[in-house]
Amino acid sequence: MKTIHNPDVGEVGVKLLLNRGVRILFAVVFASRILLYFRPVGCVLLLVLPCWTTLFAEDTQVMSADVCIYGSTPGGIAAAVSAAKGNCTVALVEPTDRNGGLLTSGLSNTDFRSFEALTGFFFEFSQRVQADYDRRYGSKSEQAKAAFRGTHGEPSVNLRILESMLAEYPSINVIKENRIQSVQTSEFVRGRRRLVSASFAEPGNKSRMIVAKVFIDATYEGDLMAISGESFHVGRESREQYGESMAGNELGQADGQVQGYNLRLIVTNVDTNKRAIPKPEGYNRSDFLGVLPWFESGKLKRVFAADHSGIFRAHFPYLPNGKADVNDTPHAAVRLSMPDINDAYPNGDDKTRAEIVRQHYYYNTGLLYFLQNDAAVPQAVRDDAGQWALCKDEFTESDGLPPKLYIREARRMVGQHIFAENDTQQVDGDARGMLHTDSIAIGDYVHNCHGTGRTGSRFDGKHSGEFYKQVPPYQIPYGVILPQKCENLLVPVACSASHVGFGALRMEPLWCSLGQAAGWAAVENISNDKPVQDIDVAQLQRRLHLDRSATIYVSDVPPTSPDFGAVQWWGTRGGLHGLASAEQPQPQSLGGQYVAAFPGHFVEPTTILTDEIRSRWNQLLPPGVQTSTELKRLQWIAAVFASFND
């Protein structure tokens, strides 16, 4: 058995690892050998392991679980809930003191385009958020309307709902403030190995070791994936590497630049709930004087705006209770994102990452403090800036500031399938995108990047590497969460994608779907004693459909339909491709980035089957499945699905 240490542990962490020493290693080696070679006996051993290992190392708590998940991001929580539904015990380990990732740290204006793309865990979550507002304020209230079908919950509400979903499963053990330090693995056999345990540093110079059958990395940074020895990429690939038109720098060459980060402030215009933004430590007004010429020239007219007329992008539609989610404004004169200082973050040690985070907090909050308070700022601009302020009732433990930085991109695994620009390409003559019969999730956003570099200063330059490309709804193959080496590791967040491809995957609803799939894949791994690379994808898809998670975008058969599973099964086989031509109108705008259902992505359940479609559909039937004489599309699909399940 091998132990792989985090090279960025630091002196204290190294001492912890050494102090545990031979005693705990003996316990884990013994347990892992039994688990690897005599799994039924090993399962019994793992039940008593926490008791007898305390005899070996007083400073290390050793515990076991079927599934160990690192990162209680929305994707990690979705994975935990799915695994628990599959009767697995789960250790959900979070390196900070707050669950929910960015969904509870300011990103409340959720990134998706149409409601029809929201299924599975995120669909359930948003329904619960909406029900919460309906119950507390009334279904006809302004708050219920602003909740936008539960996708625009206030951070405090999102946190409460996510934690209530976790609390419904006693088999999920949530462990906060534990940071990954090392992993223990088996030896390589035929090019693969298993993770046996993971060790974490706790507050107070203590440590924890978790022995598990399956591990899931749900962090934004991919820290567990990286320390496990899996291949990953940081930065932009060249155009020729994956044949991507938007890849690379201006010459199409690869580099180490990653997408820009920024805070997602939550602000309010309700006077009784306003909290003044604190002056950041080390504040120097001269750092922000360069913004004034933009207002003097009239090129910037506002501080907060939903368009390019301001700096702080107050996302529209607004949140309930007079709040707004603030973001970076694409292609704006003055930006909140700072891509020129991000590149060292993904592989940085704790000190490096902390300094990059500090610089973001300083600039994002210092700029707003300057515009609201400095005498050199024209009074009209100060008045405009003062219309919004931090909230008294959000992030109360961090002075109203979001506790986490918006990490748009860090490491990306090089896995079994590298999701690239071509994976969202529209099929010739068809309304739909490329078919992936091994799909485990769907998305409908755009390939987007808020910039990877900057020329000039904060106030007289511009971002580089920025792109936004609209595409039809797309499927995500199972291989995107599969590593190359570890046969019991899944990576749904820092997943396998190119820089351009990742720009279409890095949305919380989609990460929830990938996390949900990872949780069910873990169940399949444990139930069938197969490497995650070898499980039956069709069975995984069946589990996802039963859990109301889509593997293909369908506009007129929602997750609540009794025929959802049948339609998803048939569409993922290719049955819904070719029903509509490529020439489709743009979806109707719902305001902001949101649109109605994408045209041409339907079943049209009551439409009579034509001979041409019936003939093509018959050719797609699995062996042994009888065709149907039903005349209407949905009836035919339901009939052959029933035959398939018999």
Question: How does this structure look, described?
Answer:
The chain is of the alpha+beta class. 31% of the residues lie in helices and 17% in strands. It has helices spanning 11-37, 39-53, 74-85, 120-137, 142-146, 155-167, 223-227, 239-242, 292-296, 350-373, 379-385, 499-502, 508-528, 537-546, 564-572, 611-619, 633-645; strands at 2-5, 60-70, 90-94, 172-176, 179-185, 195-202, 206-217, 232-233, 266-268, 274-275, 304-305, 312-314, 323-327, 389-391, 412-413, 439-443, 446-455, 462-470, 474-477, 489-490, 589-591, 594-595. β2 (60-70), α3 (74-85) and β3 (90-94) form a beta-alpha-beta unit. α13 crosses α14 (537-546). It is globular, with a radius of gyration of 25 Å. The model is unreliable at 9-26 and 32-56 (pLDDT under 50).
